[in-house]
Structure formats: C-alpha cells, structure tokens
Amino acid sequence: MEPNRFDYSPIVDRPRIAWPHGARVALWVAPNIEHYEFLPPHNPYQNPWLRVPHPDILNYARMDYGNRVGLWRLMELFDRHELRCTAALNVAVLEHYPEIREAMLRRNWDFMSHGIYNTQYLWGVSEEAERTFFEDTKDTLMRLTGKRLKGMLGPALTNSERTVDLLADAGLCYHADWFHDDQPFPLKTRNDSRVISMPYSIETNDGVMNRQGFEADYFSQIIKDQFDVLYEEGAQNGQVMCIALHPYWSGRPNRIKYLDDAFSYILSHEYVWKTTADDIADYYLEHYYDSVREHIQVKSSEGL
Fold first, then answer.
1. Which of 88, 169, 283, 296 has a CB 3.0–4.6 Å from the CB of 32, allowing a cystine?
2. pTM tops 0.85, yes or no
3. Distance CA 68, CA 74 (A)
C-alpha cells in the first residue's frame, strides 16, 4: 500500500508498551523555534507569506514577536512546570539569535530539525540539495550546541518522497511528520535503517488552532480532553502525547494563562513521563523496535 513507508498494524494488536516508572503517557513539548525570512526566495509550490507582493510586514512582524517576546514568556512557564522541551528548530536561529541558543542550552533542551528557515521548503528540491540540507542541519546543530541531531520535522511540514531515506542516511532515527499514531512505529527505508515515526500533533498544536480561528481557552480544553483519553488508555498500553507550540501564538499575554492551566492539569496526574522526543526514540528503539518488527513479520507470514 502507498506510501510503502510503514505496515498497517492496529494499536490494539501490538506488543504492549510500558514507559519508565509505570508512566501511562510520555509527554513531550515541542516549541517551534523558527525564523521567517523577510524576503524569502521564490518557491513555485507555496508562497511563504499570506500576502503578495513581498514584503509582508504584517505577518513578518507577527512571527518576529515570538522570538522577541513570546518565547521568553513560554520559557518561564516551562521552568515553573520543570518541562525540558524538544525544540522544533530552524537551525539558522542558532546563529541569528545567540541569546535564544544559550537559553535553550542552559535548560538542556533537545533539538529536532525543523529546517534551516521556515520559509525554505523541501518541495521541489533535488535529491542532492536535500541530502546537503540534512548534512547542513546536522553539522550546524553539532557545531553550535554540541548535540547530535536525532530527529526531524519538515520545514513548514514539507517533505519529498525520499525524505525518510535521506534522513536515515544522515544518521537520524525519528521523523515527526507522520501524524498517524499514538505510539512510535517503525518506518521503512531503502537501507532498512532503524528509523521510527514520532507522534507529533496537528490537534494539540496551537498554530493549527490559530489558523482555524479557535482561541486559547478552547485550545487548553483540547489539550485536557486529549490527555484524559490517552491517560485512561495508557493504563493498558503506553501512549505518547505531544503539545506543539509557537511562541508567536501561545506566548502572547492573553493566551499564556490557558496554557499554564493545561500543563497544571496534566501534571497533577501521577503517571506522566515528562520527557523529550529524543528520549522517547531512544527508549522505544532499545525496548520495542525489534519486538514490533518481529510482530509485523509474524502477522505478515500468517496472512493477517
């Protein structure tokens, strides 16, 4: 079946996942730390700005607020709740905003690539250009943070048909662009590398809620409702919950209290693993990847 990147496997018929310390839900928070170019290069598949002709000062300024103000407000919130995040990072941020780089490193955040800029896409690029993209993001992160790049969320959620293969060739082990499961799951690559899909979210994602016209109180309730179901189900089989945030949205003064309330609610529960995407990937690859692959092979041999 297309896209031939993973097998069908119903979650009710897989090896049971048990997270560390009896946790029912592995919670990871993904602030999207982005840079939008004022005059981005032309891409025939998508206009980076909502309005033409460029520059689109209105929307550039809205995004710029996130790095100037909103992120710092979110960091205070994360600190209060002792949350170590996984930044979905436009790696150019590390050079353009050294204050942000140092603040993230002081908090020992993990980083997954979210591209170089959020105005440069993987749609339409050659295989060689995409391969160079992975080497650039990997090398830039190591040079400026000392951390190995393990995962990737496509810039503006763009991918090519070969992205998973090139991701694996670059030594990464998880891809967060597949919103198809509440658990990690093995992905197929041309070299049969150990790569998994990492549950990200377009539901508990403030950027998506913003574009659909929903306000912060509604977003907070969505987070709570999502957590309630995953927490109940996690008593039998460990689940993953990602909360994806954008500083230019949730970092606004009129919205921050609703996010604070959602985190307070989740963390009032005992069996929550506050973690990062990197740590989830490492744990799954060590404890469950092989057993799930074996389970899939057995089912396939049985014709199921």
1. 88
2. yes
3. 12
